[in-house]
Amino acid sequence: MPDYLQATPWDKRNFGIDTYEITSMHDVALEAADKIKGHFTIKVPPLENPRPLIQHGFYYMDTLMEPVCKQEDFLLLEKTGISVSQDYHADAVFTIANQAFMHGRFHRDFHIPNQLADLRYMNWVRDLHDRKEILALYVHNKLAGFFGFSGNHVLLLGMHEEFRHKGLAKTLTSQCCQLLFDKGYEELRTSISAANVASLNLFYSLGFRLKNTVDVYHKLNGPEPAGAS
Fold this sequence. Notes:
Layout: E1 5-7, H1 9-15, E2 19-22, H2 27-34, E3 38-44, H3 51-55, E4 59-70, E5 82-85, H4 90-100, H5 105-108, H6 114-130, E6 134-139, E7 142-150, E8 153-159, H7 169-182, E9 187-190, E10 192-193, H8 197-205, E11 209-221
Parallel strand pairs: 2-3, 8-9
Antiparallel strand pairs: 1-2, 3-11, 4-9, 4-10, 4-11, 5-6, 6-7, 7-8
Helix pairs in contact: 1-6, 4-6
């Protein structure tokens, strides 16, 4: 397979069709995607002319903001009764995850059934659990949510509905980020949909600053996925 066309088996397992990420806007890459059945993702700078993408059947899906926080800019918050730990019951975390992610780019993709977009997030959380890359968030010893990471990348933040909109996420996220800095990382990175203003404001308040932005386009060749493999 050409370097500019990369299979994404983590999405194929959810959607039951071949899935790919395209890493180039060159004509040869876009023309190659025209000849292969499956679902495609491409991420491009916002100022890139989208006409070639539109002409090849791509459609705009999302804009991802990529904030970065250096350790010297980080704000650590503490509050009585709040703690984070890698000790948790997996099923309890999975239950929260099943209700926490409803507005991702695959939920907005009109070719992807919502139940398969849900499955994608659930499998992602299970993978992070298997790799011991989840921190549980506790409020007075009650599980309030979870924080997913990989290396110095903050990946997922899920809160139980009982604890949302109570000003707790900021302190919980701060403590999780501190644990990552304690591992020796000099900076942390995350990726946030431009539609998720609340999350963007949360990370900005902790010292994260916008580093990069990319626009995300999808394309589907062939029938829509009907179920998971």
